Amino acid sequence: MAELPPLADRIDALLPQTQCEQCGYHGCRPYAEAIARGEAEINRCPPGGAAGIAQLAALLQRPALPLDPARGVEKPRLLARIVEADCIGCTKCIQACPVDAIVGASKLMHTVLADDCTGCELCVPACPVDCIVLEPMPAQQIDHAHADAARGHFRRREARLARETALREAELAARKAAVDTAASSNPVLAALARARAKQDKSP
Asked: How many CB atoms sit inside 10 A of residue 11's CB?
């Protein structure tokens, strides 16, 4: 008999993969892991709604709960669309999108890849000029195939951001080491470094 996947995987498979963070966790997978550990209730996902809660309840063999109103309300899924004439190219929406569904560059118009959009709505408050509108999501886009794709996009984005953070930290550490080396062989640089460190520590 085939071995069942870990509980967190089975829970994650039932979540809508919007990555909207309404549950209070950074994406669907962390929420699934919190449920598996018994740290979170099953009723914190507005996009999954009552049907999603019922599926989680059946999987975990526990009573279904009403959706936690502190997490939002159940409503039809929506797609983001950028009003291109109003876009200023600030990239804030690109930074906010958890699945890399928005493309563009600084000071250039952005656009939403509609088929990749999960309807998380995180880009809306990020936009400083209110040029993002929400429109009904086609019913055929709310399926397992799109959820699986969104999960993959989210994981790849998280991995990329982690690599970029590690690279920045390594570059800063190398720069600091170079400055420390130079300062140790030059009394003037050493005095400047001490003064800078003292200034950084002052309130």
From this structure: 22
Give yes or no for a contact between 143 and 115, defined as CB atoms under 8 angstroms apart.
no
Under DSSP, is residue 40 helix (H, G, I), strand (E, B) or coil? coil
pLDDT of residue 174: 82
Residue showing tokens 């200023």: 88
Right CATH number for 7-71 from 1.10.15.40, 3.10.50.40, 3.90.180.10, 2.60.40.3250?
1.10.15.40
DSSP strand pairing (132-136 vs 111-112): unpaired
Residue showing tokens 């990749």: 116
Q: Who's near 152: CB < 8 A, 6+ residues apart?
A: none
Low-confidence ranges of the chain (pLDDT < 50): none
Neighbours of 117 (CB within 10 A): 26
Give the pLDDT score at 202: 55
Complete DSSP assignment for 88-132: ----HHHHH-TT--EE--TTS--EE-TTT-----THHHH-TT--E
pLDDT tens-digit profile of 64-78?
999 999 999 999 999
Do 80 and 112 form a contact (C-beta atoms < 8 A)? yes
Rounded CA-CA distance 142/139 in Å is: 6
What distance lies between CA 176 and its chain's CA centroid? 31
CATH of domain 78-141: 3.30.70.20
Residue at 100: amino acid letter:
D
Residues 6+ apart with CB under 8 A from 10: 4, 59
